[in-house]
Amino acid sequence: MTTEPHNKKIVVIGAGWAGLGATYHLAKQGYDVTLLEAGAYPGGLVAGWKTPGGRSVEAGIHGFWYPYKNIFSLINELEINPFTNWTRSSQYSPAGLEVESPIFQKQPLLPTPLGTFIYTQFKRLPLIDRLSALPLLYTLIDFDNSDSAWRRYDKVTARELFKQFGVSARLYKDSFEPMLLVGLFAPGEQCSAAAALGMLYYFILAHQPNFDVVWCRGTVGEKIFRPWVEQIEKIGGKVLTNRRVSDLIVDNKNRATGVVCGEEIFDADAVIFAVGISGMQKILSGSPTLQKRQEFRNLNNLSAVDVLATRLWFDRKIDIPLPSNACFGFDNTTGWTFFDLNAIHDEYRDEPGTVIEADFYHANQFLPLSNEEIVPIVQQYLASCVPGFREAKVIDSSVIRLSKAVTHFFPGSYQYMLPAKTSFANVFMSGDWIVSRHGSWSQEKAYVTGLEAANLVIEQFKLGSKAEILPIEPDEPHIQLAKTFNQWTRDLAKSLLPNFWLP
Fold it and tell me: What pLDDT digit, counting tens, does each position of 485-501 carry?
C-alpha cells in the first residue's frame, strides 16, 4: 500500500477523540481530509475555553485510565506531556468519607479480582455486604463483549441484575450505584446490565491496575487537542469549525459524494461520522438523505444524559485530602465528582485560594436553576465532604449546562446502535456509542473507533497503511479458563435445549 499523497477526499464530521483520531491517521496516509466541527473549538464535549475574565474552563473533567493504551500511545507520538502522575481517589456520601482507593499498580499483584477487593479501603461498608458481590462474578465471566452477550444482558437493568445475583441492598446503594452514576451517568434502574458489566470489567475488575488514573494538567482542549490539531494541519489535514452538517449528497451507486453544510458543499470520496448521539440526531432531523434509511431513523430511539459542570474559586486554601473524588447519596438519581484543581492543573498550582471543579451527571433537575441558585448548592455539598468549604467564600464561578451531553446506555439501547459500516458503501461511523468488539470504553473507545473507521477507508481504497490499534490486555489465565468453560457449557445447553434457551 502507498502512503504517497493522492486525490481521495475524506470528510470527517465531529472533532472529538474519534474525529481527530480518524483525521490524523488518514492525513498521515496521504488522504485529503477535511474535518468539520459544529462548535467554535475542536474537541467536542472536552474542548476547553476561556471565560471573559480569562479563566480556563471546560465541559467537565475527564480521567485517563490505566487501560487507555491507544491514547497513551498517541500522546507519546505527539511528544507532549499533558498528564499528572497516577493519583489516588476517594468517595464521599453526606455522612462523610466512604472509600479510599490506593494506586493499585504499586500494590503487590494479586489474581483478579482479589487486588481490587482487598486493597480498596472501605470506611463504613461491612465485609458481609462486600462478600455479597461474589455471585455477581459469574456475570463478569459470562459477559464477553460479544454480540450475543450484549443481546443477552442489554434488556435487563443493572439494578435488576445485581438484585438477581444477591448483591446486598447496602452494597448496591453504597458501591455499585455510585459507580453507575459516574461511569454510565444514570441510576441503575435506567442502565443496561450489559453496559454496566462492560464498564465495570474494563475500568475496575479485568486487571488490578485498571482503576488507576491520571488527569490532564489543564484543559484537554489546551493540553492535548491544540497540539494535535496543529500536527494535523502541519501534515495537510484541514480542521474547520462552526460548520454544522445538514445533509449528505448520494449518487445512484449508493455512495456519498458530498457533505452539505448550509450553503457549502464539501466533495467526498468517503465520509466518517464522529459525533455523539445528540449531534447525530440533530443532523438526522435536517437530512432527507439519512431519514430514508431505517438504521439512521432508529437513532431517534437513543438518548443522552444531562451534565452540569461547575468551577468554583474560593478565597482561601482548603485542605482536600485527595485530588479526585466521587460522591453519592446527595440526590437519588444524580452522581457527582469534585476535583482539586490546585493539585491537578498547572494553571492553579500557585493560586492563592482554592479552585474546585464539581461535575454532576444525570443532572436534569439542576439545569433549570439559575447560577445564583446552583453555586450555593455545590458549596453545601462540598462542605458535607470537606468541612473547610463551609466558611470559605466563593469569589468567582463558572456554570456550564450540557443538555443531552453523554451517551445513555439504557436497557434495550444496543439494538439501535450502529456498527462502523453503514448501508452506504462509503459512509462509516465512530464514537463511544458505536458497536465495537475492541472492549474499551469512554474516551479510549471513541479514539479507537475513529481509528477503526480510518482503517475501513484505507481498506476500501487500498491506499495507505492501517492504523495499529492496541488490543486491551488479555484476561488473566484463570479468567480465560473460566470463560472457556462457561462458553462450553452454554454451547452444550443450547444443543440440548434449543427451544428453551434464550439468546
Answer: 999 998 887 777 665 54
